[in-house]
Design goal:
Length: about 240
């Protein structure tokens, strides 16, 4: 009896709003980190028991995850962690590389001082997470850094497309960091700094070239890592 009371005291009931956020953030992180593998089932009843919440906030959290493409409801109404579309990965990389280049070019052309301050703030956060080997922090701050560059370019269609690509690619980026055992070489942090310098100088050609090189090394590293993954129970499901 005493142990049960202590357990309840350690885990006080969550309010509905905070409960939704807690479930969403926990599952999102587990999916991005590939702790919840592509194709694995999502069971509302089990989640309700796990988080000690009713099924209503669980469903609300799952709706948010579905909107981000992290979970999928099948025709039989079963819900699973979304598979990574490796069959169309080349198309994804082409689109991602194009967005790296066009948004960085536009930022070099159109940025204002407040844009540079925002970009540098996200770069500082990225550098710190790299130093701390905080993978989720690296993924989030890298995404924010490139979205800030897109915002500096001012084309809302590019901003929306690039944001969607970066969000969809979070698990792929997780593989990228895994290829370095989560110890990202400093040169890749420096690449961000070089891109900022080209943007500040309004050197459009230089900004474009640096963005292309940055995208290419990410793509090649991920492709090499996926090709080398020969584990019998690899989680890289199609």
């Amino acid at each position: 009896m005493t142990k049960t009371k202590e357990k309840k005291a350690d885990h006080p009931p969550l309010k509905r709003g905070s409960g939704v956020t807690h479930v969403y953030e926990t599952l999102r992180n587990e999916i991005i980190e590939l702790k919840l593998t592509p194709g694995s089932p999502i069971d509302e009843v089990q989640l309700s028991e796990r988080f000690s919440l009713s099924r209503t906030p669980i469903r609300e959290a799952l709706v948010r995850l579905a909107a981000e493409g992290l979970i999928t409801t099948l025709t039989n109404r079963a819900t699973i962690v979304s598979n990574i579309d490796f069959l169309n990965l080349a198309d994804f990389f082409d689109a991602l590389t194009l967005m790296y280049r066009v948004t960085t070019r536009l930022a070099a052309q159109k940025h204002r001082p407040e844009h540079i301050a925002e970009i540098q703030a996200f770069q500082d956060a990225f550098a710190q997470t790299v130093a701390e080997q905080d993978v989720l922090g690296m993924i989030a701050s890298n995404r924010d850094f490139h979205v800030a560059i897109a915002r500096a370019g001012g084309n809302r269609y590019y901003i929306e497309l690039f944001t969607r690509l970066l969000d969809e690619g979070r698990r792929i980026l997780r593989l990228y960091y895994s290829s370095f055992n989560d110890k990202l070489p400093q040169q890749y942090v420096t690449e961000h700094e070089d891109m900022i310098a080209a943007i500040v100088a309004r050197d459009v050609s230089r900004a474009d070239e640096l963005a292309r090189i940055h995208a290419d090394q990410i793509v090649l590293q991920i492709q090499s890592y996926i090709s080398a993954d020969t584990r019998p129970n690899a989680t890289l499901s199609l």
